[in-house]
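ARCHIVE CARD
Drawer: 12
Card no.: 0347
Subject: one protein chain, sequence and derived structure
Cross-reference: see card 0346
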Amino acid sequence: MSVIFSAAGAVMDWENTAHSVDDWIALAQRHRNGARALKKDKQFSLVWDHTGFAVECYLKAAIMQQKGWNRWPDSGERKDLWVHETWGLLKELGVTPEGLGRHPIRFRLKTILDWRRRHGYNPSSMPEKYAEQIYRDAFSSEGVVEWIVKTFHLPC
């Protein structure tokens, strides 16, 4: 276990990860709230990052729900799930471009699929229009998150 001790004496286990549908949803909501707050503060690169992480967490919750798992698999069991790759997670759920056909969500997914974890390491500022688009495509009432929640029957 890799731990960090803070000046206040708190211990943080950096090896720990979400282990349940509820854990993944809580993480997703944390990132969604972060994206909302950062949007108000015009921190567009961070809006992009937090929105992508929120969608990733909702997808991981959906995988657990669909598979009926009672814990998230260790990286040694399913290394393919220990990724920040939305397309791979969608494939695990059985979602394909062909299967979506002309479903309206397909067009909203395009922006989400453009998100990459490595974008967070880019020192350049994210243009506002891209942050606004990923935020809207993820969190609007017709967005990707609502589609994930309804399609995969998440308890949120």
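Annotation on reverse: Strands lie at 3-5, 11-13. The first strand starts at residue 3 and ends at 5.
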